[in-house]
Every structure is written in structure tokens, then in C-alpha cells.
Amino acid sequence: MRIHIATDHAGLEFSTRLQEHLTAAGHEVTDHGPVEYDPVDDYPAFCIRAAQAVVADQVAGVEALGVVFGGSGNGEQIAANKVAGIRAALVWNLSTAELAREHNDANVIAIGARQHTFEEVTSFIDRFVGTQFPGDERHVRRIRQIADFERDGTLLPDPRAL
User: Fold this and answer.
1) Consecutive sets of 10 residues in the chain, 162 residues long: mean pLDDT of each?
2) What's the pTM value of the predicted model, to 2 decimals?
3) Where are the domains of the chain?
4) Distances (CA, A) of 106 to 55, 65, 92, 98, 110
């Protein structure tokens, strides 16, 4: 599987070590930056480029996921979610990593590098990458509703207005 990675300065060390971990596990890793430590770097472009690459690969039929890091992971998740077709989930334990795939078919995860040890981070990512979306109808329906809104603003009728 191809895994796209991006971070800010807070996650740079994790990103470097993670690339080694994922490559050793047989994945193809693409690093979208940064390439050097800068305590005032701006993460949005790195994360958006990683998310765009995930979408481009998936459209081309390439199996791909993304991982974005930051101090908390929140800003990185927000940035990735601005890319049409991305479902980025903030992950903080094994359960959220697994549910991100099983319930939301998330294709990017965001992790707070200052919140976890490297061992925890690799366990979250390994669980995320190793979990398949089972395609349960209720989850497919909900994901489609999000995609419809993203595409053209379509929402289901408000039941309070009926």
C-alpha cells in the first residue's frame, strides 16, 4: 500500500521514524514534508498535498492512505479534510484507529505527536492500515450523505421541519 505522510515540526521526528517502520512493513511511503526542522513552519500545505495525493492515488486505482502529524493533530486533520474526497479522522487510541476505517472509511488519520509515544503511534497506524472498511449499508449511507454535502450542499430534510 502507498502511504502519504505529512507533518509539522512537532511531528518531524515521528514522521522520519514512521517512514522506516512502514517501509520495513512493505509499504511504499511518500513524504510530503517538511524536510527539515523549522519551529515556525506552516503545516497546512504539507497536509493538503498529502491528502491530494491520497485522493489522486485512489482515483487512479492505487491503494493509498494518509497519515498527518502535528502537536495535537487537530489542525492537520482540519487541513486534510479541506480536500474533496478526504475523510480524515483524529486518532488517539487503537479503537479510534479501527473505527475510523470500519465506520467512516477514513482515508487519512491525524495524530498528535506530542500526545503519544512512538510505539503508540505505530500501533495506531498499523491498526488503521490493517483494518478494512466492511461496507455495512448504514456506514455507506452516512458516508454518501457527507459526500453529497461536500459536492453540492445536499442535506437530508430536517425532521423538525416536517
Assistant:
1) 92 87 97 83 94 98 96 95 97 98 98 94 97 96 94 88 76
2) 0.93
3) 2-134
4) 12, 8, 14, 10, 10
